[in-house]
Design a protein that fits this description.
The protein contains 7 helices and no strands. The chain has 208 residues and is mainly alpha-helical. Helix 2 packs parallel to helix 4. The longest helix has 42 residues. It is elongated, with a radius of gyration of 20 Å.
Length: 208
């Protein structure tokens, strides 16, 4: 499992000539790191007398950040599987008309999955952004820069995974499916930059 290998090995595989892991897995791990940083800020805020008035909020953020971290960690491997499925479909026999039809159907099914996986990553990454924004506003000021890194990681993961949605959706012949996925993505991207920049400025203001 890709998610279980040491960091150095993962980076070596990412840098290799192998197509997997690739940008989709990288996007997921960037997002997971963002979620982990949000959790860290929460863990260093909860239980502190100075932040007693926001403890309930931070506990809720922590529960959500840990849930989204787990999802993003799973997506690291899901992305590899989805890409491998696309490659396997393209490698199917295409001599007879029946084989060509089966191959075409398999490619389209695989492309739909390869669109859904990064879209799941986008959903999770948007959650990281929103959770990090709360952590930036209410978290322990001694680790507030980590909330800033968390929101930037979430935004990077969102935009990175979006590229894979765009890439695969354009090759799907079922335009109703493709357009629905692109509309869903548009909703996730909408406002994300604003939330990220606002949280970043909040962090900067607390550091000055």
């Amino acid at each position: 499992m890709i998610k279980d290998v040491p960091v150095e090995q993962f980076l070596a595989e990412l840098a290799s000539s192998s197509a997997t892991p690739g940008g989709g897995s990288a996007a997921a791990i960037i997002g997971a790191q963002g979620a982990a940083l949000v959790s860290m800020v929460c863990n260093l805020t909860i239980g502190k007398k100075k932040y007693a008035d926001v403890e309930a909020d931070m506990k809720a953020v922590l529960a959500n950040s840990e849930s989204v971290r787990e999802r993003l960690t799973g997506i690291i491997q899901d992305d590899v599987r989805a890409f491998d499925k696309v490659m396997a479909a393209y490698g199917m026999a295409k001599e007879s008309d029946a084989e060509k039809s089966a191959r075409s159907d398999a490619i389209q099914d695989a492309l739909k999955e390869a669109t859904d996986v990064p879209l799941k990553c986008c959903h999770a990454a948007r959650e990281v952004i929103d959770l990090a924004a709360v952590a930036a506003e209410k978290g322990n000021v001694n680790v507030i820069s980590d909330a800033g890194v968390g929101v930037l990681a979430g935004y990077a993961a969102l935009r990175s995974a979006a590229l894979n949605v765009f890439t695969n959706a354009r090759m799907i012949t079922d335009k109703i499916f493709a357009e629905a996925k692109l509309k869903e993505l548009e909703g996730l991207l909408s406002g994300a930059e604003g939330v990220t920049e606002k949280a970043y400025e909040v962090v900067k203001g607390k550091l000055s």
